Amino acid sequence: LNGMFSFALYSKGKILLARDIAGEKPLYYKETPFRFASEAKALNWDCKEFPPAHYGVYDFKKKTLVVKPYWTLVKRKINEKTALEELEYLLRDSIALRTRSDVPFALYYSGGMDSTLIDAFYGEFEKIQYIDGNYKKEFLKVFPKILWHLDYPISSFSPFGLWKLAEIASERKIKVVLSGEGADELFGGYVRYVLPQFNYDAQREFPSYKSMFQNAKSVNEFGWEEFNGNMRELLRMGDRMSSAFGIENRCPFLDKRIIEFAFSLP
């Protein structure tokens, strides 16, 4: 399956649970007694988050749950001469898949690289932008609602901006939005990746001075860590804030093929 999902399938005394590779859609579970839900509050927060890229089988006779990964990153060979053309094809196709819709859709457009690329490949989006302003009173009023939808506290004020975007989309009767989430982790978009990459290169170039170049991590290593860490919080904010207004948030950069392409780049 290529896309975002979490689902439960019952068959012959067993339930199969599964969640998408990046963890775009929510899924929570409790092992004993066995319970599952798409919101932690439905389980009174007495639960675990089901891991992305995993499936689980609960056997009602044995009363056992076995959870296993169905996908792990296997790096593939990248032809550097045609890499740009390959990425263009993948991104164009991913956007085409995610603009299949019989309801109105739009683009969360910041004007940055990620949303601009999505717009460039499609070009007919209604654009929704966050307008900065003094939202203190409104923030204090809606903050309890935001926290309720998030299920858990987070470490930034970003969900308020995402709440405002979804609110604007809802007022325009939009039911599906596309966003550029995931591109920074996949393609080294954060400034914080620069110094570790410099140290990584320096350690390889001057091995006798290796201890001087700490903390060393390639862009791919750092991005992969955040793909499996910090990005999940970002996706949770994006998904929950749009869902609060009955809107589906789709992320073209988190296409299975693009994930595998990005983390296979040298």
List the defining traits of the structure above.
four-stranded parallel sheet, 266 residues, four-stranded antiparallel sheet, alpha/beta
How would you characterize the overall build of this protein?
38% of the residues lie in helices and 17% in strands. The protein has 266 residues and is an alpha/beta fold. The strands form three sheets. Strands 1-2-6-7 form a four-stranded antiparallel beta sheet, with no helix packed on it. It has a four-stranded parallel beta sheet with strand order 9-8-10-11, with helices on both faces. α4 runs parallel beside α8. The two termini are 26 Å apart. The mean pLDDT is 95.
Which secondary structure elements does this structure contain, and how are they paired or packed?
Elements: E1 6-11, E2 14-19, E3 28-30, E4 35-37, E5 48-49, E6 54-59, E7 64-69, H1 83-98, E8 105-108, H2 113-122, E9 126-128, H3 136-150, H4 158-171, E10 176-178, H5 183-187, H6 194-205, H7 219-227, H8 230-243, E11 248-250, H9 256-262
Parallel strand pairs: 8-9, 8-10, 10-11
Antiparallel strand pairs: 1-2, 2-6, 3-4, 3-5, 6-7
Helix pairs in contact: 4-8
Q: What is the number of helices?
A: 9
Low-pLDDT segments: none
Biggest sheet: strands, sense, closure? 4 strands, antiparallel
Beta content comes to: 15-25%
Helix and strand pattern? EEEEEEEHEHEHHEHHHHEH
